[in-house]
Amino acid sequence: MRRTALLASAALLAGLLPWAATARAAGEPAPVPVDRFEGEVPFAAQPAEGLFTWGGDTDDPPTLRLADRADAPDGGKVLTGGYDISGYGGFTHDFAATAPAHDWSAHQGIRLWWEGRNNGRKITFEIKDGGAHGEASELWTTSFTDDFTGWKQISLPFTDFTYRTDYQPVGGIDHVLGLKEMWGYAVTLPPGAKGDFAMDGVELYGKADQALHASVTTDAPVRPVEEGGTAKVKVTVATTGEAPLTDPVTVTYATAGGTATAGKDYTPVSGTLTFPAGTASGTVRTIEVPTRRDRTAEPAETIPLNLTATGAKAPAETPRIVIDAHGLPYLNAGLPVKKRVADLLGRMSLAEKAGQMTQAERGAMTRPDDIAGYALGSLLSGGGSTPTPNTPEAWAKMIDAFQLRTQATRFQVPLLYGVDAVHGHNNLSGATVMPHNIGIGATRDPRLAHRTGAVTAAEVRATGVPWDFAPCLCVSRDERWGRSYESFGEDPALVESMETVIQGLQGRADGRDLSRNDKVLATAKHFVGDGGTAYGSSTTGTYTIDQGVTKVTRRQLEDIHLAPYREAVDRGIGTVMPSYSSLDITGDGKGAVKMHARADMINGVLKGRMGFSGFVISDWNAIDQLPGDYAAHVRASVNAGVDMMMVPYGYKEFSTTLADEVKAGRISERRIDDAVSRILTEKFRLGLFEHPYADTSGAAAIGSPAHREVARRAAAESQVLLKNAGGVLPLKKSEKVYVAGSNADDIGNQTGGWTLTWQGASGNTVPGTTILQGLRKAGGDVTYSKDASAPTGGYDVGVVVVGETPYAEGVGDVGNGHDLKLSAADQSAVDKVCAAMRCAVLIVSGRPQLIGDRLDEIDALVASWLPGTEGEGVADVLYGRRPFTGQLPVTWPKSESQLPINVGDPAYDPQFPYGWGLTTLTEVPKGGTATLRDLAVRAAAAERHGDARTGRTLVTEARLLVQQRTAGHLTEAVAGPFADADHLLLTGRYGKAVEKLAEAYRAA
């Protein structure tokens, strides 16, 4: 029922609540209940009316219950619950989407009873205006502080609510709080520590404020102007529903305060703007503020333009005119970067330096002025943190708005904005989504890896983002890890060969290309050993392996996990991100130490021995996992060599704690200067001081046919043909094909985690082509039945596409709700189709799946990995438009008991060895041991002459001979040398590789 029907009158309310504040002025309407929490509103979500919880992580939503309380301010029950929030979380009351929206326009505000804990923490309260329903409305926000004990009635006038600029489900409707179409409210609880709450009696109160019908806004909160120029500030009046003003609105203005000196730096102005009754909504007036030129080089100076509105709501912020910094050496683009950095660093205060070392999440910017207030150096979008609408234009507009805020700081140091574009610009709807790294590793094609990086960089930079938290250079040693698909493979030599992606992202190794509008700063992650964590060693929530402990000898660390970082440093990688995991080096006496605190590895190995000159960025809230109090977290990580801290919602605490630790002498000023110098160097190299705003000239190419063609080719080359009995593949256009399986027509499953959101999702999530659609576009005679329930008679061949659903990080760990087996539905589809006809089974997954018990009934088996948005690439190899050329980047096990299993292991008896991959459309060389001897001699000669192309070709011929010889009957004696040969090939030892293949041939 509508809330207005719950109470008959304010007199009844007063009788029930003798201690409530019931007095009201003459002519003031009676309070209107919204929630009494007596059970009339259920725990339910849209489209029904109800209360429901939400949060950034699975453990962030609070608990809710209705509790009988003798001291309840309103009725007999209250809403109470507990919370322990790391990111964000809270609860919502949405009105029924199937009923009309509520009209709150007759009231002054909304109030509620809150049981105070006197913890000084902020409670955010939002109301929902306009749109189709509560989850498609504008959000307007205010807050109160829990600085009291016991029950207190909190009054929140509607004039205190501000439009949320950081997140809007629909991108905003009219940006005017109309109050005639209200859909409920939401409460955001404070993160960072456990707590509980109690709430009661939500109601509308008071008489409407006339200022709610009209508002005054300015075109920008910050208006930069060159010294000597005239700043022009546009003032706009707008009304609810865009109706003309019914009463006049006046705006008085005056320049006062700030760091600029009136009469010296600018000509002060004051006056009144009048918008008479009848003025059209959207009418603009302009205030001009002349600045004065002198010959003195100086930092930026601010001129607040104070505005007072009568008859309308005033702007949420006082606009500031900023006279740009000028004449200072760091602004001279002709000087070497090193000199520019030194000049700027020498001018900065400790607080400004601490700000440069601080990175916040865009979603935390409920007060965007904090960007200038804390001199923040960086913002990021975490997985799923996107503007609405999620378009290139909205991304650029959002980032430019954040960037504008930096112009109000003394030295106008631009923000460095970062995203996790780990397989294309995967946060952006409509972007080109590449195969995940495991698929790129399967291509064995460094030039293609370079091209995928170049496409990603171009699409990312065109949305205003200059920094990518990629590539992941982990060497995945256990496929139970939920991040294994982020790895190029289990062999460090394979990972190193794919690091051409760095040049695709950044350009040339000396950094000269970083200022281009199609290049981004890249990040090598996660330093070091994240792919080697032991199963069962994780201490993070329900994770089993992610963020666990990597226990290795010094030699194993150097040869397996550090090797890709040596290559990345040589390639000029701009930033490095440490791992959440711990490192335990046998014999060093340290035990398991979190990587964010390992100064021996970050300062000693990475920056010292390897000579890394970029900067180190922490992972998301990673320092919170270090021992001790918060000051100890900051001290340990910064002293270990972490230069910038990703503290998404804790940026204020971090920057102030960092400054305090320096003042106390526990972090040296020299260390701070080193960190800030590294950060500023990359900002100068990116050209951000000259061009801080988005260059969207390349936006038209986002998701373009040319870019999708690169992704299509990558999808095709990533397909690994594991078995092909009787030449089932390639398919013929003349064949009748029966397609089944959960992943045949699901682009969400096909793209996997880190697609639009952190965890990804099944279903029609992003634009692209599913595998089924690709098969149909290829011109085949295709019938589809997802569960294979349609009749199977009369078909020539079946294609069953099965595998995993999306996950990311430790959420996807085996043992954390996941395993390596096909679902019951997938098993049933395979069994039905393969029993009825010749069949090819495609496994769409981030890691190998245990298929051995069904291998005999399957004619052709393909590891499709996570091929991205271009399902036509998969169809290309299935129908023979391209040959199968992919090779396994990881060992495919027979059983989970074999894990971890990797190339080079002394006991090695997998289902399919590392490097395995049959081919089609390619004539396999004829011959036997004599041919292999000849190939070995020629390969050794190619190795001596540095002829890599010939060497690789000869090893490939030998590999094809061995694969043909085994005819699918792999033994341990074959698998070991076969896998070793692929490692030798990647390390340039072509002669030895052929010798190993000859050994495998003889054992077959």
Automatic annotation (TrEMBL):
**Mind telling me which InterPro entries this protein's record contains?**
CalX-like_sf, Calx_beta, CBM11, Cellulose_Degrad_GH3, Galactose-bd-like_sf, GH, Glyco_hydro_3_AS, Glyco_hydro_3_C
Q: What does the record give as the reaction this protein catalyses?
A: Hydrolysis of terminal, non-reducing beta-D-glucosyl residues with release of beta-D-glucose
The keyword Repeat is assigned to this record? yes
Stretch forming the signal peptide:
1-25
Calx-beta domain mapped to chain residues: 203-308
- Known Pfam families for this protein? Calx-beta (PF03160), CBM_11 (PF03425), Glyco_hydro_3 (PF00933), Glyco_hydro_3_C (PF01915)
| EC number(s) from the headed UniProt entry | 3.2.1.21
SUPFAM superfamilies associated with the record: (Trans)glycosidases, Beta-D-glucan exohydrolase, C-terminal domain, CalX-like, Galactose-binding domain-like
- A Gene Ontology molecular-function term? hydrolase activity
Q: Which UniProt keywords apply?
A: Calcium, Glycosidase, Hydrolase, Repeat, Signal
What broad class of enzyme is this? hydrolase
- Sequence similarity: Belongs to the glycosyl hydrolase 3 family.
PANTHER family from the xrefs?
LYSOSOMAL BETA GLUCOSIDASE, PERIPLASMIC BETA-GLUCOSIDASE-RELATED
Q: What is this protein called?
A: beta-glucosidase
Lineage runs: Bacteria, Bacillati, Actinomycetota, Actinomycetes, Kitasatosporales
